[in-house]
Amino acid sequence: MDRMLYVAMSGAKQAMEQQATVANNMANASTPGFRAQIDAFRAVPVVGEEPTTRAFVVATTPGADFSHGPLTDTGRALDVAVDGDGWLVVQTPDGGEAYTRVGNLQVGPDGQVTTMGGRPVVGDGGALVIPPGSTVTVAADGGIAARGPGDPTTGVAQVGRLKLVNPDNADLVRGDDGLFRMRAGVPPAEADPTVTVKSGVVEGSNVNSVEAMVAMIASGRSFEMQMKSIQTADEGAQSANRLLAYG
């Protein structure tokens, strides 16, 4: 059978995968701290006895767009955004660490600081716990101070400090839960004192809705073109069979 059929099939498959990625990006255009996923493809020549005239399309290692999202003022004390490069650290169900830019934090019933998704936020000394009913402030270095009801406004005690890290982006891998982790074989990132945060703001998604819509249209047209190629290859094969049958 003509290799054109397989070439077009590989292109259609990758176009469908690209559509899924773009759709996921568009769905998270309003998700705080979301990092857009990037698809990359490369051509692999079809190897055979004949001259190399056609190429398959295969996906390369997918990555993420690590550019910063827009900051939105909220005025809420527990809303924080990493200022520049860096990540907040959260604890995963298996006890490990994962990294996120989602900074709309909250205090659970037990006083533990978590993300809005319920992930415990990791501090330099472990879990961060705030006394119930306290007024919380977050400093630029990630220090968390809590003032209980009736406590003086001066000499507020610091209850902990956010663990802020800044690993190499090449070492980060996105998980199915949307959190980033260090790739296999790389130890967890150490706290970086140069990373700072802003309080009272949250970082939005870095997805550009207009660009995502254009990419969706382009991938849709690419899929249609590949399907047309498959149809053309099938029609060519049928014509050849008729010629052989009645030639």
From TrEMBL:
<comment type="similarity">
    <text>Belongs to the flagella basal body rod proteins family.</text>
</comment>
<dbReference type="Pfam" id="PF00460">
    <property type="entry name" value="Flg_bb_rod"/>
</dbReference>
<comment type="subunit">
    <text>The basal body constitutes a major portion of the flagellar organelle and consists of five rings (E,L,P,S, and M) mounted on a central rod. The rod consists of about 26 subunits of FlgG in the distal portion, and FlgB, FlgC and FlgF are thought to build up the proximal portion of the rod with about 6 subunits each.</text>
</comment>
<dbReference type="InterPro" id="IPR037925">
    <property type="entry name" value="FlgE/F/G-like"/>
</dbReference>
<protein>
    <recommendedName>
        <fullName>Flagellar basal-body rod protein FlgF</fullName>
    </recommendedName>
</protein>
<dbReference type="InterPro" id="IPR020013">
    <property type="entry name" value="Flagellar_FlgE/F/G"/>
</dbReference>
<keyword id="KW-0282">Flagellum</keyword>
<dbReference type="Pfam" id="PF06429">
    <property type="entry name" value="Flg_bbr_C"/>
</dbReference>
<keyword id="KW-0966">Cell projection</keyword>
<dbReference type="InterPro" id="IPR019776">
    <property type="entry name" value="Flagellar_basal_body_rod_CS"/>
</dbReference>
<dbReference type="InterPro" id="IPR053967">
    <property type="entry name" value="LlgE_F_G-like_D1"/>
</dbReference>
<keyword id="KW-0975">Bacterial flagellum</keyword>
<feature type="domain" description="Flagellar basal body rod protein N-terminal">
    <location>
        <begin position="5"/>
        <end position="35"/>
    </location>
</feature>
<keyword id="KW-0969">Cilium</keyword>
<feature type="domain" description="Flagellar hook protein FlgE/F/G-like D1">
    <location>
        <begin position="81"/>
        <end position="145"/>
    </location>
</feature>
<dbReference type="InterPro" id="IPR001444">
    <property type="entry name" value="Flag_bb_rod_N"/>
</dbReference>
<dbReference type="Pfam" id="PF22692">
    <property type="entry name" value="LlgE_F_G_D1"/>
</dbReference>
<feature type="domain" description="Flagellar basal-body/hook protein C-terminal">
    <location>
        <begin position="199"/>
        <end position="243"/>
    </location>
</feature>
<dbReference type="InterPro" id="IPR010930">
    <property type="entry name" value="Flg_bb/hook_C_dom"/>
</dbReference>
<dbReference type="InterPro" id="IPR012836">
    <property type="entry name" value="FlgF"/>
</dbReference>
